[in-house]
Design goal:
This protein is α+β, with helices and mostly antiparallel strands. The chain has three helices and twelve strands. The N and C termini lie far apart (93 Å). This is Cell shape-determining protein MreC.
């Protein structure tokens, strides 16, 4: 006991400093150095010059310009992707149009674009985005057009598996996915398969990309179903490409249950 007391009397200061250093290091780590930063700001504040009202306005204006530049760069990137998509597409493009209207109550059902009949947009034209199909034009004015989205539950589109050609139709689910319902009881399908519009579709040209198979429900009746992840980010669309198309009128040669797709 006497030895321990002598050691403490001799090394108390050193032990205290070591414990203080450890506690300080632990505190800095836990607070990410916030305390040190705030202490520095407090101590140096009297020596810092405060910006004048004019400088504050100028700084705010510069910040606004920087934010606008960032937004324009993001918009240009989206347009470049859309232009590249159009170059590789077999569809003829009439125009590219900005989305100017979208109701929160019908977010997954319809959009309004800022181009209409004066830009040669007509009912029946096809809308695509980066990744594939968006929907079709269902009404127009001279300067606007309304597009029914493929994510609308009332939108049914004839499709096929690109790999195996197994046919069916997809129905929107008011989200980034759609349900694919097959016509045959034993379709050749597997997760990852690409889905495109089929030649049986009355309202859409064939071979437009739609999405990929996510999961398969083989127990569905009367035929298997699959969940499809849509290629186009429907939730945050800003621009679309409009392609001229005239819906097919003569469909007598197609199977009856297939030509009932594309219901509005």
């Amino acid at each position: 006991m006497f030895t321990l007391r002598r050691w403490w009397d001799k090394n108390a200061l050193k032990a205290g400093l070591i414990l203080l250093a450890i506690a300080t290091a632990w505190g800095v780590r836990q607070t990410n150095g916030v305390f040190i930063s705030e202490t520095y700001q407090l101590l140096t504040r009297p020596f810092q010059s405060q910006p004048s009202a004019k400088e504050q306005v100028e700084n705010a204006y510069v910040l606004e310009l920087q934010q606008r530049v960032i937004e324009l760069e993001n918009q240009n990137q989206g347009l470049r992707e859309l232009v590249d998509e159009n170059k590789s597409s077999k569809l003829q493009t009439t125009t590219m149009a900005a989305i100017i209207g979208r109701s929160a109550d019908n977010w997954w059902q319809q959009i309004t674009i800022g181009k209409g009949t004066q830009a040669k947009v007509k009912v029946g034209d096809i809308a695509t985005g980066s990744g594939g199909l968006v929907g079709r034009v269902i009404s127009t004015t001279p300067h606007t057009a309304r597009i029914l989205l493929l994510s609308d539950p009332s939108s049914q589109i004839g499709v096929k598996i690109s790999r195996s050609r197994s046919a069916g139709y997809i129905q929107g689910q008011s989200g980034e996915r759609a349900t694919l319902k097959f016509f045959e009881k034993d379709p050749d399908v597997k997760p990852g398969d690409v889905i495109v519009t089929s030649s049986f579709s009355r309202l859409f040209p064939q071979d437009i990309p739609i999405g990929r198979v996510s999961t398969i429900n083989s127990d569905a009746s009367p035929a298997p179903e699959a969940l499809v992840q849509l290629s186009v980010p429907i939730s945050n669309l800003e621009w679309v490409s409009i392609h001229p198309f005239t819906p097919k009128q003569d469909v007598d040669a197609a199977p009856a249950k297939i030509v009932t797709d594309d219901v509005l």
